[in-house]
Structures are given as C-alpha cells and as structure tokens.
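#dry-run=false #mode=assembly
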Amino acid sequence: AQSVAQPEDQVNVAEGNPLTVKCTYSVSGNPYLFWYVQYPNRGLQFLLKYITGDNLVKGSYGFEAEFNKSQTSFHLKKPSALVSDSALYFCAVRDMRGSGGSYIPTFGRGTSLIVHP
Amino acid sequence: EAQVTQNPRYLITVTGKKLTVTCSQNMNHEYMSWYRQDPGLGLRQIYYSMNVEVTDKGDVPEGYKVSRKEKRNFPLILESPSPNQTSLYFCASRVNTGELFFGEGSRLTVL
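#status=ok
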C-alpha cells in the first residue's frame, strides 16, 4: 500500500520569506513523487516530480523539492514567496513497481499556503 | 492546446435524477481517471481506465459508473445521485512522463 501525509493543513508565510510545505510518504518499493498546485476554482496543475537522480528537483514558478529517502520526505520549497503563490498544494506518491491499482498516484489531503503581503 | 475538458462545470440536481459528467482529452493519453475532492479529505479516486474498454474501481467507486468506449472520452455516470455525492469532481489523464493532466473540475450539488 502507498500513502502520503501532509502534516500541515495551512502554512502562513510573509512575502519574500522562504516557504516550505511538508510531505512524507510510504511505499513498498521506490517512489515516484509529485507536487501539484490548485488555484481557486481551477484544476490541479503539475509543479514538479522526482523519479530518480538528483535529490533536489526544480519545477515550475521557482519551486523546488528535496527528496530524502531516509526520512521518506519530499518537502516543497521556494526561496522567496509571492502573494500569487497562495493556493492549495498537493503531494502525491506512486510506487515505482506498481501495477494495476498502484500504478496511479495517491494524493495527500492538501496544504493551503497563504502568503501575506 | 492540450486539454482535458469536463462538462458541465456546475450542476445542481435532485436526488435520484441520473446525470453524466463528460470528460474528453485531446492528448491521446491511454490512462484516464476520475477524482472527487472534498474538504479535509483531499483527492480520492473514483474510477480509472488504463485504456479503451479497460476500467477499474478506485478508492470510492460506490454510486458511480464509467465507460471507456473510445480513447478520448471517459464519462462519469451517477445513476441515482444522493446528497453525499455533492462534491467537486476532476477528470485527469496521464502524460507519458507520469504526471497527471487535470480538467478544470465539475462542481455537483445534489439536493
């Protein structure tokens, strides 16, 4: 079985400050990890993913995420937050060895990021 | 432009009145899926399809049906909607590199 935990329902940060949105995962094999963003009244948009290789992954809109195998984490980060980054962020995991039902990602419950001016 | 198109975007209906939410993608993706999004519960998968004529249940399939008669379309059918199916629904297809491409969502209210 695979699962994802996003321990914070909401993260508040001041504009210009660094931000971190936390994600931990559990899979039987090696993970494929994803971050998506959802702006109000919109569908989810893909931000970045980790498949293999460098532990630091760079994605859209200046976001990056760090894969930490020993801590089973994939935290989303950005060096300097913008008010326009305010949105709902979802972490997702898929077991690399998966097939059938586990061939599709499991999503976390989402973290609301609020960036204050 | 690559798109996953859902219709209707908003719908208010009454208990027991059959409805269909359509989903169409123009990217020739083999894999498609339906999710529902509820506050505090995140995204939960309803059904998915690995290819034409191949569908399978996700985590919360009760009360829903799907069909995949052609690659581009994956409609979600509520035969007898109930108030607990009031939710925000998303259709998605999967890019070859693994990530999902989502539609804009369909907000359904069942009275």
